[in-house]
């Protein structure tokens, strides 16, 4: 049996090539979708990685690092699976103790 005989029986090979040309035209016209999707997924991946690292979820961190779901899994994690934070920590100014007066000022002047 000839291994190339299966290729000769492909129906509508001309229609397939026409469809391929239409796909190429679509990609040429809507090229901007790919950078937009990349930025969308990159932002959500960054948020999810940051939040999973802050909460100590090592398994979620590894999943986000390896699996690319175009932001879908990341959005679900941020809004559904992660524990909501109880309060937002606000930085307090550091209070320094009062400085003691200079030692020279405390000593009485010496008579000459």
Automatic annotation (TrEMBL):
The keyword Magnesium does not apply. It holds the Pfam family DUF5652. Keywords: Membrane, Transmembrane, Transmembrane helix. Residues 102-112 have a biased composition (Low complexity). InterPro entries: DUF5652 (IPR043712). It comes from the Bacteria. The chain crosses the membrane at residues 29-48, 60-80. Residues 92-112 are annotated as: Disordered. Signal peptide: none annotated. The keyword Transmembrane applies. Residues 26-86 form the DUF5652 domain. This is DUF5652 domain-containing protein. It comes from Candidatus Yanofskybacteria bacterium RIFCSPLOWO2_01_FULL_49_25.
């Amino acid at each position: 049996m000839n291994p190339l005989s299966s290729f000769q029986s492909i129906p509508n090979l001309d229609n397939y090539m026409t469809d391929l040309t239409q796909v190429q035209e679509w990609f040429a016209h809507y090229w901007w979708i790919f950078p937009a999707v990349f930025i969308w997924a990159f932002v959500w991946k960054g948020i999810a990685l940051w939040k999973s690292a802050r909460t100590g979820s090592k398994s979620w961190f590894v999943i986000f690092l390896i699996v690319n779901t175009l932001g879908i899994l990341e959005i679900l994690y941020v809004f559904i699976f992660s524990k909501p934070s109880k309060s937002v920590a606000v930085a307090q100014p550091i209070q320094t103790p009062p400085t003691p007066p200079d030692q020279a000022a405390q000593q009485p002047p010496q008579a000459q």
